[in-house]
Amino acid sequence: MSKPVIVALDFADDFECIEFLSQFPKDTDLFVKIGLEMFCQFGYPFVRSLRNRGYKIFLDLKLHDIPNTVKRTCEMIAKWDVQMLTVHGSGGAEMIAAAKKGLEGSQTNLLAVTQLTSLGQKELSDELMIPLKSQDYVTHLAKLAFDNGADGVISSALEVPMIKEVTDKDFLCVTPGIRPKTAQVGDQKRVATPSEARNLGSDAIVVGRPITQAENGFVAYQNICQEWNK
Ligand SMILES: O=C(O)c1cc(=O)[nH]c(=O)n1[C@@H]1O[C@H](COP(=O)(O)O)[C@@H](O)[C@H]1O
């Protein structure tokens, strides 16, 4: 299977989202990410409707709570037949293990967010008061996730080689913060182009605005797929 380009569906309303998706030919093998913005508005029925269209779903809820709450939430999500789910790695070992336990019996890959790609070294040190180099913090959280049963992590593409080194080559590295050379970086800090992400060993890239806000979303998607698969 070729490695996916996951389209982040960050839209303010479902009409806009469905209109965007209508640009894609019916036989496109789409992998989409439903994040907090759309999930808070449209909930599980929206997830189900996109799953019924045959899309693969990355449900990006970034769960971060006490282990019991996360486990019970994951038990519910386990019935939804989604391909990926996120928790925050900084929720700790017990929480990650509880999430995995909650997903037992499902095909859902559990991914732990390491350091958000919108945070750089300055924010890590000055705001979060974490006295580590960013790459050490990311690899620490990746190892924690690996040791506690996660199937992979979310990180910047820049950290993938280090993560694979401290975990396993098959430990999934799904990387947002993807910006083609000509795109606006916006609020992202640790960015890479699709071809850089591929060369660094990412297993999947997550792309939002460079596709969803392009004049022609399908063409932008095709261009990114072409660069990613080259
Ligand atoms: O978990 C994520 O998907 C995520 C983690 C992270 O560290 N950085 C990050 O940007 N994301 C998500 O990836 C998407 C990136 O969108 P764009 O910046 O528009 O390409 C957004 O939906 C973010 O919520």
From TrEMBL:
<dbReference type="InterPro" id="IPR014732">
    <property type="entry name" value="OMPdecase"/>
</dbReference>
<dbReference type="InterPro" id="IPR047596">
    <property type="entry name" value="OMPdecase_bac"/>
</dbReference>
<feature type="binding site">
    <location>
        <position position="179"/>
    </location>
    <ligand>
        <name>substrate</name>
    </ligand>
</feature>
<feature type="binding site">
    <location>
        <position position="117"/>
    </location>
    <ligand>
        <name>substrate</name>
    </ligand>
</feature>
<feature type="binding site">
    <location>
        <position position="188"/>
    </location>
    <ligand>
        <name>substrate</name>
    </ligand>
</feature>
<dbReference type="InterPro" id="IPR001754">
    <property type="entry name" value="OMPdeCOase_dom"/>
</dbReference>
<dbReference type="GO" id="GO:0004590">
    <property type="term" value="F:orotidine-5'-phosphate decarboxylase activity"/>
</dbReference>
<keyword id="KW-0665">Pyrimidine biosynthesis</keyword>
<feature type="binding site">
    <location>
        <begin position="60"/>
        <end position="69"/>
    </location>
    <ligand>
        <name>substrate</name>
    </ligand>
</feature>
<dbReference type="InterPro" id="IPR013785">
    <property type="entry name" value="Aldolase_TIM"/>
</dbReference>
<feature type="binding site">
    <location>
        <position position="33"/>
    </location>
    <ligand>
        <name>substrate</name>
    </ligand>
</feature>
<feature type="binding site">
    <location>
        <position position="208"/>
    </location>
    <ligand>
        <name>substrate</name>
    </ligand>
</feature>
<feature type="binding site">
    <location>
        <position position="209"/>
    </location>
    <ligand>
        <name>substrate</name>
    </ligand>
</feature>
<keyword id="KW-0210">Decarboxylase</keyword>
<dbReference type="Pfam" id="PF00215">
    <property type="entry name" value="OMPdecase"/>
</dbReference>
<comment type="subunit">
    <text>Homodimer.</text>
</comment>
<comment type="similarity">
    <text>Belongs to the OMP decarboxylase family. Type 1 subfamily.</text>
</comment>
<protein>
    <recommendedName>
        <fullName>Orotidine 5'-phosphate decarboxylase</fullName>
        <ecNumber>4.1.1.23</ecNumber>
    </recommendedName>
</protein>
<feature type="domain" description="Orotidine 5'-phosphate decarboxylase">
    <location>
        <begin position="4"/>
        <end position="224"/>
    </location>
</feature>
<feature type="active site" description="Proton donor">
    <location>
        <position position="62"/>
    </location>
</feature>
<dbReference type="InterPro" id="IPR011060">
    <property type="entry name" value="RibuloseP-bd_barrel"/>
</dbReference>
<dbReference type="InterPro" id="IPR018089">
    <property type="entry name" value="OMPdecase_AS"/>
</dbReference>
<comment type="pathway">
    <text>Pyrimidine metabolism; UMP biosynthesis via de novo pathway; UMP from orotate: step 2/2.</text>
</comment>
<comment type="function">
    <text>Catalyzes the decarboxylation of orotidine 5'-monophosphate (OMP) to uridine 5'-monophosphate (UMP).</text>
</comment>
<feature type="binding site">
    <location>
        <position position="10"/>
    </location>
    <ligand>
        <name>substrate</name>
    </ligand>
</feature>
<keyword id="KW-0456">Lyase</keyword>
